[in-house]
Automatic annotation (TrEMBL):
<protein>
    <submittedName>
        <fullName>Uncharacterized protein</fullName>
    </submittedName>
</protein>
<dbReference type="InterPro" id="IPR015321">
    <property type="entry name" value="TypeI_recpt_CBD"/>
</dbReference>
<dbReference type="GO" id="GO:0004896">
    <property type="term" value="F:cytokine receptor activity"/>
</dbReference>
<dbReference type="InterPro" id="IPR013783">
    <property type="entry name" value="Ig-like_fold"/>
</dbReference>
<keyword id="KW-0325">Glycoprotein</keyword>
<dbReference type="InterPro" id="IPR003961">
    <property type="entry name" value="FN3_dom"/>
</dbReference>
<keyword id="KW-0812">Transmembrane</keyword>
<keyword id="KW-0732">Signal</keyword>
<dbReference type="Pfam" id="PF09240">
    <property type="entry name" value="IL6Ra-bind"/>
</dbReference>
<dbReference type="InterPro" id="IPR003532">
    <property type="entry name" value="Short_hematopoietin_rcpt_2_CS"/>
</dbReference>
<keyword id="KW-0472">Membrane</keyword>
<keyword id="KW-0675">Receptor</keyword>
<dbReference type="InterPro" id="IPR036116">
    <property type="entry name" value="FN3_sf"/>
</dbReference>
<keyword id="KW-1133">Transmembrane helix</keyword>
<dbReference type="GO" id="GO:0009897">
    <property type="term" value="C:external side of plasma membrane"/>
</dbReference>
Length: 315
């Protein structure tokens, strides 16, 4: 197994060296035909974009091709996903699953044209230096209402080649929520760690906090990374409109209570809401002599019986 792998490795290197030698000894190449402004950036842990511009004196039909090698132990690979301009010319490349090594990576961009020889461009790049760091993760703020201290906690940004907190430094930026585009009221840079104490001098305000990270030691990019999403914390003081509504509500309630107590004491309810008279009882004038009442009922009953008897005779 060793011999075939060594043969493949040597073949790839011979191909790369041949390309370099052709470009190096290319006396008939057009000056100014090599690419310009070559740059690469690594983002989202393992994605990489490389871009360039065509040489200012390159023929219109010039096409460019990128080859790269992550380390001496890796194979030489051509770009698998080119970025093209409106004319179909390759002006960049997208990479996935990029692994950051301690060694420098090698990039080679050569060109081809029907009628001309094109100069090549090559460069060595330390990949960790071109990484755009993600923001710190899981940022939380817990405030002590008595001491007015707020404890900020976070986790380091994810990178593919280090898991040590000491490799990072952090920038903390705090503004008032009601003026997010205004002046920063607090800024701090902390080496390592994953927590920080912020002293609130105005406990009646809400704040917005953002953080970003950069490499401090280790093989981590020293450039500041992306800002985190704003994190809101603190107590928001009542606005003037809210105060007005509260005053109106309390005033209305007090007026209602005073009115009820005053009317209850002075009897103004009777004047405002007079009582409706009850209907008279039709039996109120009847005598209370029980014997007389019973005799009248018997007389009425006997009259009815006589009438009934006469009716039966007529039948």
């Amino acid at each position: 197994m060793v011999a075939p792998l060594a043969l493949i490795f040597m073949t790839q290197w011979m191909l790369l060296i041949t390309q370099l030698c052709v470009g190096w000894h290319c006396t008939d190449c057009i000056n100014g035909s090599a690419i310009e402004n070559f740059s690469c950036v690594i983002y989202n842990i393992s994605f990489m974009n490389c871009t360039w511009q065509a040489g200012k004196d390159a023929p219109g039909d010039t096409q460019y091709f990128l080859y790269w090698q992550n380390s001496r132990y890796d194979d030489v690979k051509e770009c698998e996903l080119y970025i093209k301009d409106e004319n179909g010319r390759n002006t960049g490349c997208r990479f996935q699953n990029v692994r950051i090594e301690t060694e420098k990576a090698y990039f080679l961009v050569n060109g081809s044209s029907k009628d001309s020889l094109i100069q090549f461009y090559d460069v060595y790049i330390q990949l960790y230096k071109i990484e755009k760091l993600m923001p710190p993760e899981n940022i939380t703020v817990n405030c002590d209402e008595i001491k007015s201290n707020c404890i900020i906690q976070w986790q380091r940004p994810q990178i593919s080649h280090s898991n040590k907190d000491k490799c990072f430094k952090y920038k903390i930026d705090i503004k008032y929520k009601d003026n997010p585009e205004g002046k920063t009221i607090y800024i701090s840079i902390q080496e390592g760690g994953n927590n920080h104490t912020f002293q609130r001098y105005n406990t009646g305000k809400k704040y917005l906090l953002q953080m970003r990270a950069a490499g401090s030691v280790c093989f981590v990019s020293p450039a500041w990374g992306e800002w985190s999403a704003p994190v809101e914390f603190g107590n928001e003081e009542l606005t003037s409109s809210v105060w007005i509504l509260l005053v109106v509500a309390v005033g209305t309630l007090l007026v209602a209570i005073v009115t009820v107590l005053f009317c209850k004491r002075t009897g103004c309810w009777k004047a405002a809401f007079p009582q409706v008279p009850e209907p008279k009882n039709s039996f109120c004038g009847l005598p209370h002599n029980t014997e007389l009442t019973e005799s009248k009922i018997q007389a009425i009953t006997s009259d009815k019986e006589e009438i009934t008897l006469v009716a039966d005779i007529l039948k």
